[in-house]
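Morning run. Coffee first, then this:
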Amino acid sequence: MNLVAKTTYFVIAFFFAISFLVILKEPELFNKNLGREDGLLEDGTFWVAFFTSVFLVFHTISQRSNMTITQLSFGIFYAFLFLFIAGEEISWGQRLFDIETSDALKQINAQDETNLHNLEINGVKINKLIFGKLLTIIAFTYMIIFPLLYKRWGFLQRLAIKCYVPIPKWHHAVAFVTVTVLTIMMGVSRQWEMYELAAISIFALVFVTDREYLKK
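And here it is:
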C-alpha cells in the first residue's frame, strides 16, 4: 500500500469520524451542513472525480505510443466516466452559472435540476434504479469478485489488458466494504453524500495509483 492510498484512507476515516460526531450530537446538523446540497462532501466528490478525469486524460495521452487503439479508447472512456460523475454532482454547473432548468426537464426531474441521476420516468427513479442498485452491484462485483476471478482465469487477464482495466487490490476491497457498512450505520437522510465521496476516492485510487495498470 503506497503513501497516496494511506493518505486517502486517513482522510476518509477523518471525514467519517467527524460525520459520526456530528450525527451523535444532532443528526439534522449533518443533513444541513456536511451533507447538504452543494456542501463540503458534495464538493469533495466533484473535485476528486474531476481531477481523476484530468489525470486519466493526460496519462492516456502521454502513454498513447505504447497503447493499442482499444486501450487508448478505453483510457479516454474511463476519463469520461469520472468527468460524467463530476458533472452530475454539480448538475453540470447549473447553480454555479445560474442556469434555468428547461420546462421539459422539470417535468421528469425530481429536483428540477439539469442532471440525469434525479430523473423520474413513469414513477421510476433513475437514481435508485441505475445510480443506486445497478451501480452498487457493479461496484461490488468489480472490487471483490473481479480480482478473485482475474487471478484464476487467463482470458479475464487478457481482456483486462486489452480493455486497460485496472485491478483492485485487497485493501481497495476492504476499504470499499468498510465505507459501505459505516454509511449504512449513519442512519441520516443525507448519509449517501459521505458514501459518494468515500467510494469515488477509493475508485480514484484504483485507477490512478495501480502501478501495473499504468505500465500496461
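The mean pLDDT is 84. Good start to the day.
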